[in-house]
Amino acid sequence: MSLNIFWFLPTHGDSRYLGTTKGARAVDHSYLQQIAQAADKLGYGGVLIPTGRSCEDSWLVAASLIPVTQRLKFLVALRPGVISPTVAARQAATLDRLSNGRALFNLVTGGDPDELAGDGLNLSHAERYEASVEFTRIWRRVLEGETVDYDGKHIQVKGAKLLFPPVQQPRPPLYFGGSSDAAQDLAAEQVELYLTWGEPPAAVREKIEQVREKAARQGRQVRFGIRLHVIVRETNEEAWAAADQLISHLDDDTIARAQASLARFDSVGQQRMAALHGGSKDNLEVSPNLWAGVGLVRGGAGTALVGDGPTVAARIQEYADLGIDTFIFSGYPHLEESYRVAELLFPHLDLARPEEPQGKQFISPFGEMIANDILPAAAQS
């Protein structure tokens, strides 16, 4: 099975060290363009663009990088509850057309109650997933060309439709990650690819089996992906030294403050990440070559694969053997590490090489619409 390898755009900031301003660098458009173009040239299939109030807007970042890349796909955050599913469908179709079919979407329900409240979303964990299911049902159907009437508990639309379809048919793929039962139920019903954060293989196997079984009950199949950091060097000793260096400026107070902030999240996945390290710099290798140091101060994906190229490739193959075909990697700093990974790890993997999309016409050949959705008479004959 050829593997899809994605990289990460650090729109929340980048550095040589975690938890300190030492070695930090400004993340402006020029820097993000450097990373995106490096990923494009090096053979990464796409880039994940994060979301949240600490990040630049993922949709605008993706749109700005379309003209300076050729093959790279953009995995953009889709946020139920803060936007209408119909408007989100129009935005998704537009981004897909402008990028010539290079748009992917990552459903993010959110886990930080403070941030969600700031965005006007005051639902419990269970209610957010109810709303996410309704949102996604409408979003998918509208993108697939249906005219949708929907009267849900949280969302109601009447006559929702899309006049200009996406390039990818029936619509761009939907990715999603979540560890709760409600999240797995949503994935089984709604998405093409279920993402997990980098837990030990036995824990990942359990989640995959649960989602796969739930999807099968609905007559569906779901693909699987994993989100990990990676620290690869020419030798295992150099890789572990680089891991130690990454957290060399972390003190106990900084770790405690970061963990206290992350503890307010109602995300089951975040709780599972925190349990791997327990807030301590001791015993961070939680599985062979799987290191939990990143999660000491970073929310979300908190583990890294550490080692030389053949060793990390062997660990990747263990995940691939579970059914994972997509790996979303990152490393600090993201520009230099994109090259290290390509040079030291790619030769040991069976990669799915991205192809440059062929040009497609997406402008309506019928001129301006009349009365918002009616084609000129000549175009209808």
Outline the secondary-structure elements.
Blueprint: E1 4-8, E2 14-15, E3 24-25, H1 29-42, E4 46-48, H2 58-65, E5 73-78, H3 85-98, E6 103-107, H4 113-118, H5 125-143, E7 148-151, E8 156-160, E9 174-177, H6 181-190, E10 193-197, H7 201-217, E11 223-233, H8 236-246, H9 252-262, H10 268-277, E12 285-287, E13 290-291, E14 304-308, H11 309-320, E15 324-330, H12 334-344, H13 377-380
Parallel strand pairs: 1-4, 1-15, 4-5, 5-6, 6-9, 9-10, 10-11, 11-14, 11-15
Antiparallel strand pairs: 2-3, 7-8, 12-13, 13-14
Give an overview in words.
This is Alkanesulfonate monooxygenase. InterPro entries: Alkanesulphonate_mOase_FMN-dep (IPR019911), Luciferase-like_dom (IPR011251), Luciferase-like_sf (IPR036661), SsuD_RutA_monooxygenase (IPR050172). Catalyzes the desulfonation of aliphatic sulfonates. Belongs to the SsuD family. It catalyses: an alkanesulfonate + FMNH2 + O2 = an aldehyde + FMN + sulfite + H2O + 2 H(+). With 381 residues, the chain is of the alpha/beta class. 39% of the residues lie in helices and 18% in strands. The longest helix has 19 residues, at 125-143. The strands form three sheets. It has an eight-stranded parallel β-barrel with strand order 1-4-5-6-9-10-11-15, surrounded by eight helices. Strands 2-3 form a two-stranded antiparallel ribbon. α1 (29-42) runs parallel beside α12, α5 packs parallel to α6 and α6 crosses α7 (201-217). The protein starts with a strand and ends with a helix. It has one domain: TIM Barrel.
